[in-house]
Amino acid sequence: MSEAKKYNAPVTNPETAPFWEAAKAGKFMIKRCTTCGEAHYFPRAICPFCFSDKTVWEESSGEATVYTYSLMRKSPTGPYAIAYVTLKEGPSLQTNIVDCDLEQVKIGQKVKLVWKPTDGAPLPFFTPA
Amino acid sequence: MTIKGKAYIAGIYEHPTRHAPDKSTAQLHAEVAKGAIEDAGLTKDDIDGYFCAGDAPGGLWPMVDYLGLNTKKLRHVDSTETGGCSYLIHLGHAAEAIAAGKCSVALVTLAGKPRTGPMPPRASGAEADFESAYGATTHNAYGMCAMRHMHDYGTTSEQLAWIKVAASHHAQYNPHAMLKEVVTVEDVLNSPMISDPLHRMDCCVVTDGGGAMIVTTPEIAKSLKKPLVRLIGHGEAMKGPRGGKDLDLTYSAGVWSGPRAFEEAGVTPKDIKYASIYDSFTITVLMQLEDLGFCKKGEGGKFVADGNLISGVGKLPFNTDGGGLCSNHPVNRGGMTKILEAVRQLRGEAHPKVQVKNCDLAIAHGTGGLLGVRHAASTCILERA
Q1: With the CA atoms of B240, B135, B117 and B15 taken in that order, what torsion angle do they form, in degrees rounded to the nearest 10?
Q2: Fewer CB within 10 Å: C terminus or N terminus of chain B?
């Protein structure tokens, strides 16, 4: 294996700080609106669907399915697989599929959350389940 | 209220350069502005509206000053920034301003030199902490769209390759095209894989250069010498993951901008004689043709195959200058050159080998940003008057 890739620490802000504090404790949080019931990611204070301000933090299972991906082969830092995965709770999010044979990544594949360290809060990635 | 027929494109200019280490970016803006003003038969002092986007060094104030626009006359400015389709939106906004009497001669410029200098970093929004680590680039963001389109609709790399093949057939007649060689489907499939499933030849060129246009009133256009080309419909739209609900990367914001433009113009895709379709990648063209209604969603692969986009061969001649795939993609922003070739076709000034006969109705359409992440789209329907 090559040396672990370095990732920049998230900058964070008052709106998203609870997400990153939870991440430090190993919890992957999404937001759910208690007015319309929809979950969303990345987290916002105001629901992007019904615009209610009654959004609450909810821990995600971290279980997801690959919606799509692309294996970037021409990169100065080596190949990587960017992807969108769809969480069991509903929202889809952009990520990388890591710690596996990148040639074997497939649409529909089951994946699970894995954290990668930074100098600050860790960042969420996904790996085959 | 409509902009239909309220504004004419009276002057166009595409910089012949594809590599400009000996020029400044501001200088390229001035050179394309001068070219478009002279093509129209106007002078710099006639300009009373100016439009530029994120490629203009420093934005509006420095550009207006550098170009020496007549600030006693200049009364309308717009720096709408939507990446590569900014100039298609500028055309619509210029028509709105002209229809409202806010200006009468609008200049729109695009220029830059990504081949000889670094591109400015892409601006990020509230999503930065949640996405920047994952390395989204143009290649893999469009690759993700292509991958899902193939999964959902059975689209193949061979079908995508036909888009590049068609562009190369046109580029051979453009003396300024960066890539003039005619290529085959096999050539595309044998080119190196960049970001699955996109090969190198599925990707556009990176070029220095630029382009400009003059948008004006019907009265002024008719007083000039060029064949008359007018805007009869315009649409703009945006799309993004929006909280991750119902993610679908197989369609673009063109599904909204297209119908808006067609409705305003009072025409349908069947009426279009020539199509300028933004071709940052082959998949960009395929998805946009579907989204604009040239074929059903999922049938773009069949539609583009077997030379259907080649002028004189297929049913829908597209990008007869060679497009971004072969000719020019100044500053990684293809919207301006899409308009310019559509105007050439409507004027009858395209290369004789690719000129569409009786070309009286054309579409220029593009997207800006990253198709697989967040993007804008704009559609312009143009008519020979």
Answers
A1: -40
A2: N
